[in-house]
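Hi P.,

Sorry for the delay on this. The queue was packed all week, but I finally got your sequence through. Input first:
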Amino acid sequence: MSRFDFHPDASRALSLDRGMHRELGLSLRHVCEASKGAIEFDQIGMHRLIEVLSGSAVISPAVFARYYELVEAITGDRFDDAQRLFDELAGARPRTHGLQVVTLGDPELGAESERYTRLMNADTSIDLGFLPPTPEVASAFRERLVRGLRLLDTALPELAKEIRAIVHQIVIVGSDPRAKYQFDGGSHYQLWGALFLNGNFHPDQIAIAEVLAHESAHSLLFGFCTHEPLVRNDDNELFSSPLRVDKRPMDGIYHATFVSARMHWAMSQLARSDALDIQQKEHACAAAEADARNFNAGYGVVAEHADLTNLGRSLMASAKAYMDSVR
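Then the structure:
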């Protein structure tokens, strides 16, 4: 690929989003062709969904998840499950454009709450205590989220546009305070377009802006990886992570390192913005300094141990060039 520009780019993000939709459509077309004669499914409904995916419409993150479940059901010879998933996919409809904010466990999400919870808890080695939030927590977080998004729109408009291009649904969640690891925020490659934020955290608009820059950067990396991974290291090969107490696969360390640079950019830009008062600027500066330390620690592990693809090398080089330019 050509040299990656590290800075936010809304048009590039939109292209990645459309690419993810198109790739899903192409994969579903292949699955449909391979399943004809073996599994009964609504061919007209599936054709309609594939056409939707090839256009400009946005579909629910749960449609992406159902695709992965469908493939697993077919390869596992669970044809009854596959038929059910075909039916659910055939009934999928495009959703309206714009950023949707929902709460885990709300009737608005219906059965998707269970699917979201299962996927976000897929790593059984970590107990995240991923739970629906209380109504009070969700309501208060919605208000802070509005203020945080407004700050991004005012002070970092290109980042705000990039986020809205690849994040279509923010899901407010809670967590069990007794859990060893406290879920802060996250996303999942099988739930393209969804971003999960813990309503118990992120107490002000600066923290909201930072976590949005953080988690959307993970999604950005997911969007780049439709045809090529970032690293070739085996997922069973674990390394000491400078950002977590447990050892992590290289892909996770790569993500955390790149994302730290993106958070640094966002916080340093906010620190220069007239939208913040002096105290808020000090908060943003402190966050940027922590992000720089995290990047440096993570980059050391990546430089020493990562088996980078061309894509991974280009993206990380752009992050390193940015961090070098601000020293």
